[in-house]
Amino acid sequence: MPNELRALTGARTMRALAHPLRIKLLELVTLRGPLTASQCAPLVGESPSSCSFHLRQLAKYGYLEEAPTGVGRNRPWQATAVGHHWEPDENSTVAARAASEALAEQFRERSEELYREYLAAADRFEPAWSTSAMDASANLYLTPAELAQMSDDLMTLWQKYLDRVAAPSRRPDGARLVHLRAQGFPRADDLEAEAPTSPETTPNKENDDA
Questions:
Q1: I want to staple 61 with a disulfide (CB 3.0 to 4.6 A). Which of 16, 21, 42, 163 is the partner?
Q2: Which domains are seen in the chain, by residue range?
Q3: How much of the chain is in helix, strand and coil states, percent to nearest 5?
Q4: pLDDT of residue 147
Q5: Model pTM score
């Protein structure tokens, strides 16, 4: 599995992943693969036939590929990239922008699900994890360039550890699988705050003279 992020561009490719089960399956194969449909089934609570269908769809759109370790009908799948990114711009089609938002929404929901699972199991982790786990937010005044730089800095920081996903031997003692997610966006209520106020009514000269 290449230690790099795959750029997603086409609307069909993004829509193919915008499905909660497919996100879980891709995550599972990336982190624990190669895996067959039968191995995935109990881990996601689905039947092997359902998993097989969705795994094939992920392969169709380039997210997975058959692992070379398969024998006969035993078909394990492996990820083609350690992760993905997509950045629609003003030149993207309407369909691509819609698919991008649908995919982002599915990943937001998956992040919330993982966070709820962590909270439910928090007391089962070693004490050090309770002090190192993050749940932070801030409201800052930034320019678009500063926000973009912050995003680039975070990605640079995260990429230092990506090789550990595909290479267990590079994981230090005590390392656990940690979920990270960051969001940064201009607040909609700031648009209301800067809306121009109605000009004061100018006194009517004729009324003043009356």
A1: 16
A2: 5-193 (1.10.10.10)
A3: 55, 5, 40
A4: 96
A5: 0.82
